[in-house]
Amino acid sequence: MLALTGARSRLSDEEVNLYEQICHVVKALPPIEMGSARTGRRSLTPHLLVRALARVFGISYQDGYYHVYTPHAWLLTPAGNVIDVCPVGAIGAILVDTSPDSPLRTLYRPCSPNAFGEHFGGTTFRNDIRAVTQVIRRTRARLTRDAANSGDLVTVTKPHVDDNPCPIGSLLEANDDDNPPSNHSTSPANVMV
Fold this sequence. Notes:
The protein has one domain. The chain is 34% helix and 17% strand. The protein has helices spanning 5-10, 13-28, 46-57, 123-150, 169-172; strands spanning 32-36, 40-42, 60-66, 70-76, 82-84, 94-96, 108-110, 166-167. The strands form 2 sheets. A 5-stranded antiparallel β-sheet has the order 6-5-4-3-7. A 3-stranded mixed β-sheet has the order 2-1-8. β4 (70-76) and β5 form a beta hairpin. α2 crosses α4 and α3 (46-57) packs across α4 (123-150). The model is unreliable at 1-5 and 155-193 (pLDDT under 50).
């Protein structure tokens, strides 16, 4: 990751570490398919992905708009900076300094999830969050195990490669997290990958 001196000095080492761990997990995720031929296929959206990542990493997320008009969602570091795991018009996650003097802070406009309709409260959406959360937990556990086996608990260099997409429907029966997020905060979790 390359950061200009001004931005890097405002981002804590803990935020950079959290960002790097989230990036490792996101890069290692298998392809995710939701739905079925019978119920219809659904895409993995930023709104689903950030809610699942927030649960796994014990951080907050925010719904809103990117640059005024684009519905979006992002993670928030404990210091309030943005981790955008699927940035609009870019490839790869970004860690954004959103301090008052950062021009980038104006790109992320928070709003209530109600602004996007009732979709976020629906059973299908909540089930998809739980299923994606399980995929992320399993990926994180595998990366942690691989790192421990290699003797490297900080850097994970071997992402999982799988030619078969991970069917979300099969994970719903094995759900271990029956409570959908009721607000934008999640409980604390260990952040080690």
